[in-house]
């Protein structure tokens, strides 16, 4: 949509406060970007073996070839660059993936309680990972078998949801929601059946831990996949399609009046949401509530226009998951708490508050 005089920061009256809201949104995005960058640096030094931020910065400078990158202790270098850096970056990418998926999905189905996992993607990823861990499926892929099968399972679940939703001829919001719930429950049952059928107690524990979410297995190559899907395929495409998301969030009639085909638009965004969510689940397991909680917080900060809501959600999602992972690493040293427990402990009370507010508005 071309910018109007109300969108530009030019002198003159601003009775509707459009320019002031735009300036505030830009300031919020800048603050979130700076907070995310600072959190990335701090989280690299936090853990059972604390490393000062200055040493962390020196290690990063050395590996990135920046001037002034002084030599540091090899043990600290290995902890920061080999162990924590891919984990921290993976957490930020996964948080961004889930948050922008939630923001887009809530606009697609016009339901503020919608969440990426309502599409059944998490159930499909869990089934694929369980098959790899318990029965050696995809063994030819080596160390990538678990993530690869989780990704395939997640995309397969999204495709199944889409086929069921369009069985009646139209892909409506209600059909997507109901199809996602049905497929999700069916795949969760399939995953539980795989666990029950396995003779490996260690494998069963690994699957259960993975289903609750963890960044412990993060590697550089896996991070690159998540980052590309989050920042390029997902985030950029959703920002470019912000006008369409704005229209879908207001109703099919308005979308039609703007020359937008709602069903086709939902299918396109369903593919994007599925890709982002599948990549996040394949890299870090089933981490819930991020896609539900973060878009609501972002709306309170920058408003409902998706041109700013999508990047704000991505930055907030990255921040949220970075510090949730820090808590997961530190709260039960030397053991590690599944990160899904932390996000659920924060998200469940938020969901209760949200439901009460929605009920108060409708009454």
Write up this protein.
This protein has 363 residues and is mainly alpha-helical. It has helices at 18-45, 53-64, 74-109, 121-135, 145-165, 173-197, 201-211, 220-240, 242-250, 252-257, 262-284, 290-302, 306-330, 339-362. Helix 3 packs parallel to helix 8, helix 3 runs antiparallel to helix 11 (262-284) and helix 4 (121-135) runs parallel beside helix 11 (262-284).
Strand content: under 5%
Total number of strands: 0
Largest sheet: none
What count of helical segments does DSSP give?
Answer: 14
Distance between the termini: 36 Å
Topology pattern, helix = H, strand = E: HHHHHHHHHHHHHH
Helix content: over 70%
Uncertain runs are 1-10
SS class: mainly alpha
* Chain oligomer state: single chain
Question: What is the average per-residue confidence, as pLDDT, rounded to a whole number?
Answer: 83
Q: Shape, please?
A: globular
How large is the radius of gyration?
Answer: 21 Å
In summary, what is this structure?
The chain has 363 residues and is an all-alpha fold. Helices cover 74% and strands 0% of the residues. It contains 14 helices and no strands.
């Amino acid at each position: 949509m071309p910018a109007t005089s109300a969108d530009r920061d030019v002198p003159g009256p601003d009775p509707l406060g459009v320019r002031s809201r735009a300036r505030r949104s830009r300031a919020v995005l800048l603050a979130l970007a700076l907070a995310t960058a600072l959190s990335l640096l701090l989280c690299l030094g936090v853990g059972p073996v604390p490393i000062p931020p200055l040493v962390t910065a020196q290690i990063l400078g050395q590996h990135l070839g920046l001037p002034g990158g002084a030599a540091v202790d090899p043990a600290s270098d290995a902890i920061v660059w080999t162990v924590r850096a891919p984990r921290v970056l993976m957490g930020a990418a996964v948080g961004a993936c889930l948050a922008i998926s939630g923001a887009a999905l809530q606009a697609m189905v016009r339901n503020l309680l919608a969440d990426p996992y309502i599409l059944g993607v998490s159930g499909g990823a869990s089934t694929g990972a369980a098959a790899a861990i318990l029965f050696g499926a995809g063994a030819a892929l080596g160390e990538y078998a678990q993530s690869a099968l989780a990704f395939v399972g997640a995309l397969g679940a999204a495709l199944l949801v889409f086929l069921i939703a369009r069985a009646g001829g139209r892909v409506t919001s209600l059909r997507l929601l109901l199809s996602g719930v049905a497929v999700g429950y069916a795949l969760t049952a399939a995953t539980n059946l795989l666990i029950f059928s396995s003779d490996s107690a260690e494998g069963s524990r690994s699957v259960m831990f993975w289903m609750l979410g963890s960044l412990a297995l993060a590697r550089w190559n896996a991070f690159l996949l998540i980052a590309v899907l989050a920042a390029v395929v997902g985030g950029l495409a959703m920002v470019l399609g912000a006008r369409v998301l704005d229209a879908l969030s207001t109703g099919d009639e308005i979308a039609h009046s703007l020359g937008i085909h709602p069903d086709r638009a939902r299918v396109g965004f369903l593919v994007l949401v599925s890709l982002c969510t599948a990549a996040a689940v394949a890299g870090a397991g089933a981490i819930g509530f991020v896609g539900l909680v973060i878009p609501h917080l972002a709306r309170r900060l920058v408003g409902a226009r998706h041109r700013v809501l999508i990047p704000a959600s991505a930055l907030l999602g990255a921040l949220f998951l970075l510090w949730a992972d820090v808590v997961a690493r530190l709260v039960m040293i030397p053991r590690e708490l599944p990160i899904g427990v932390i996000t659920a402990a924060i998200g469940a009370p938020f969901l209760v508050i949200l439901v009460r507010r929605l009920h108060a508005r409708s009454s």
